[in-house]
Every structure is written in structure tokens, then in C-alpha cells.
Amino acid sequence: MLKSPSMDKVLGFKGYGTRCFAFLLDAGVSLVLSIVLYFTLGKYGIESPLGYEAKREAMSSLVDESGLADEKGTAFYFDPIGEDGTLGADEYGSIVWDYYFAVAVNPDLRFYPEDGFLGDESDAEAVGRWIYEHVYGYDGSSINPYFALPSSLTDKPEYSDSIKGQLADEESKEEAAERLLSFYYRVEDGVAKGAYVDAFYHFSEQPVYLSLYQECSDILYFESLPSILIPPLLIFGLVPSLFKGRTVGKLVFRLHLVDKDGKQARWHQCLRHYLFIAFLFMLPALPFNASFLILLSGFLFLVDFIVLLMSKRKQSLHDRLSGTLVYGVIGTEETVDNHDGIEENDDQGSE
């Protein structure tokens, strides 16, 4: 018996490549719209009116005043012995000492109740005593062995005679410099520790800093929403509703969305079909970890494509969820009537 043509041939299945190029075209148009919206509606319609620049400048000024980071807001890193012979511990020691004094004199910064600071913040000796006690382990009679007992509580601590001797000896200088550096900054089991790190965390918990940081983060989040949400809604929502279930990519590559019988897909099928794609594009708009959501979106797109490659009926995951197929033309009533016979003949083969 002569085998009848399959629905693939009757309705003009154009292969995986055509579908991929159509999708890439839709994604490209969506990307262009995202960029345009970000630098127009996002920047000038949301970021500017909400005063992002002023808040960012205030946060940067606060970071600068703390002295704990460079002009880019990045934590300092010093070698045990610099190229000019300067000790990294000297650099860290000055930064830590100056930071805690900045907490005392800056009205925007403060000591926390858990810090146990009971003196007057305008009293330099009271502040110095707190630094000696909480940073250098001073208890009135002893101190961390790297440092000498203070002659004045308002001056940064000096190194102990033992450490000074080791630093003066060329053979032991490097090892001593490394030990001193580890007091201020070291990494243990992948976690940064030390007096400098403690000061950095102390600043990062300052209410005024947290408030400004959160406000800036919220503005950047709201600024990105139009560029994430609007393009998918236009490309996979508005355009298909105007062109009988066809996106820009499907129009260019002459593809149609059909049901299992090869007829024009119904509106609810088109909605389910494109809602899945639009959701994956809009997934990064959720108020969670953006990097994770982008990776999750990419992973789900990959799963969708793998399902398409493995499907005998050339259906992706969102095709299966919506009961749709993608072909070159829409089937006629005659095609629909003969569809069962076509599939049956395909199963039987030819004689």
C-alpha cells in the first residue's frame, strides 16, 4: 500500500533550525527593547525622580569618611611588606584606629549597644580606651603580645620590643610582618578575619549605611523592571494577539502555531504557549538573587530546547503544556479529516 504523506510534509515542518532562528529573532528584538527602555524609562523615568544619584553620593561620602575602602568602595589589601618597605600592618593599623575615632566624631555613625562603649564619644581618651580593650585586648595590665602597653590611650599602639627586634632582623622580618598582617587581615577556611575585617563589618551594619544601601538597591531594582517586564509582554503577548498567534520571528520565518490537528491554535493555547516563554524572560524581575534567577531562566530554556530535540512530534516543553505544534502552514479541513489516516499509514509503512 502506498504510504500517505505525514502531517510534517502536508503542513510544511521546517526543521529545528528555523524554529531556533525565529526564537532568536524574537529574543533579539526583546533585548533591543530592553536596552531602549532601560536607558529611557528606567534611567529618566524612575532612577532620576527617585534621587538615586544623591543617595549614591551620600553613601559614597559615608564610605569615604569611614576610611575603610578606596574611592571605588573596595576593601584595601596590603602585602606584609610593600615595595617601598612599608608594613601592611602599619597601613591597616592606621585605618582601623582612624575608623573607630570617626565613629565617635561623625554624627551619622555610632557605637552599638553590644560594643559596650560606656564613655562619652567626645572624649578621645574614652574612645582610645575602648579601641585598646576591644581591638588590642588591653585589660589594664596586659595586651596582645604583638603590641606594647599604651603610654597614652589617644595614640595608636606601638609594637612590642619583641616584634620590633624581629622586624629589625632581615632573617625574621618577613615572618614577623606576616604575623602582624594576620592580626588585621587573614583568611581562614575561606573566611576573612582580623581587626580590619571586624571594623569593615562594624561599618557595614551602621543604620545610616544600611538605609542608604537599601534605598539605592530598591531604586536600581525598580529601574530595571520596565526593561525586564515590558519587552516579553509585547513580543510574546501583544504581537501574537495581533497576528493570529505569530510573533515577529514566526512572521519572518513563515511559521504558524497550530493545534494537534494542524488547525489554527485557539487563543487559550496561544496564551499558554507564549506565557511560558514570557515567564522565563521575566523571571529575573522577581525580588530575589538576580544571578541565580538568570541562571535558572537559562537552565529552563535549555530544558525546553532539549525536550524539543527529543520529541517525536517536534514539541518543546511549552508546546506540550499548551497542546501546540509549529508548522509552515495551517491545515485545511481536508487535512484535518485525513489526519488520522495519515498517522495510521505512517505507522504501517509502505508496501
Describe what you observe in this structure.
There is one protein chain. With 351 residues, this protein is mainly α. Helix content is 61%, strand content 3%. Strands 1-2 form a two-stranded antiparallel sheet. Strands 3-4 form a two-stranded antiparallel sheet. The protein is elongated, with a radius of gyration of 33 Å. The protein starts with 6 loop residues before the first helix and ends with a helix.
Give the structure's gist in a few sentences.
With 351 residues, the protein is mainly alpha-helical. It has helices at residues 7-10, 15-47, 52-66, 88-105, 124-136, 161-168, 170-184, 195-204, 207-242, 248-252, 267-282, 290-310, 317-322, 333-337, 339-348; strands at 186-188, 191-193, 256-258, 325-327. The strands form 2 sheets. The protein has a two-stranded antiparallel ribbon with strand order 1-2. The protein has a two-stranded antiparallel sheet with strand order 3-4.
* Morphology call: elongated
Instruction: List low-pLDDT spans.
Output: 334-351
Q: What is the CA-atom radius of gyration, in angstroms? A: 33 Å
* Count of helical stretches: 15
Helix and strand pattern: HHHHHHHEEHHHEHHHEHH
Tally of strands: 4
Which helices and strands appear, and what pairs or packs with what?
Elements: H1 7-10, H2 15-47, H3 52-66, H4 88-105, H5 124-136, H6 161-168, H7 170-184, E1 186-188, E2 191-193, H8 195-204, H9 207-242, H10 248-252, E3 256-258, H11 267-282, H12 290-310, H13 317-322, E4 325-327, H14 333-337, H15 339-348
Antiparallel strand pairs: 1-2, 3-4
Helix pairs in contact: 2-9, 3-9, 4-5, 4-7, 6-7, 9-11
